[in-house]
Each structure stands twice: as C-alpha cells, then as structure tokens.
Amino acid sequence: MAKCKCCGNKGFMVETDVNGLCSACAPYYYLTMPDDLKELEKDIKALERISQPEAALGRLDSARQLLERLRPYAAAGLVRLPRTLHELEAWLDEQQAYWQDHA
After folding, report:
1. Tens of pLDDT along 60-92?
2. DSSP run (H or E) holding 102
3. Angstrom distance (rounded) from CA 75 to CA 67
4. What's the pTM?
C-alpha cells in the first residue's frame, strides 16, 4: 500500500512516484516548487536590505504564502529551505513585529 510523503494520502488505489509523491502532489513539486524556492530566497534577501515598511510588509506576505505552499514538502524532507522551517518562521515573525512597529 502506497502513501504520499507530502499529503499522507494512502491506500491501494494511490500510486506514488520515485519521490513518494501522489499524482496530486507531484506536479507542484516538479513544475512550480523550484520557482517558489527562488522567489522565497529573493523575498528573504529583499527583507534583509529593505528600508520601507510598506514594501517590507508586502514581501513578508509573499514569503509567508510561499512558505505555506512549501511547508508539507519541507516537513517530508523533499526540499531544502534557505533556513530550517522553524528558523524561517521565527525570523518572519521577528520581521513582522519589527515592520509593524515601524509602519
């Protein structure tokens, strides 16, 4: 019986690929995830240099959305984030608090 590493879907009718992904999770992994990782890295680099609160808050929203899409794949060990998942979440929380205070 196969089980998807990402969504946990399992059963006799579930087929997984060589990475252990079902047909619902595999397309994102192969087609979209590389672009999302690049965009997340851009957001992080921008947040390290940015000086305008409005722009920073926009980048934070973008980074959080990307992280939510990447989370199940990172938890399954299928993707390497720029930092560990917990470090990245804590850093985004710190940035959010800082920029909300300076907005």
Report:
1. 999 999 999 999 999 999 999 999 999 999 999
2. none
3. 11
4. 0.89
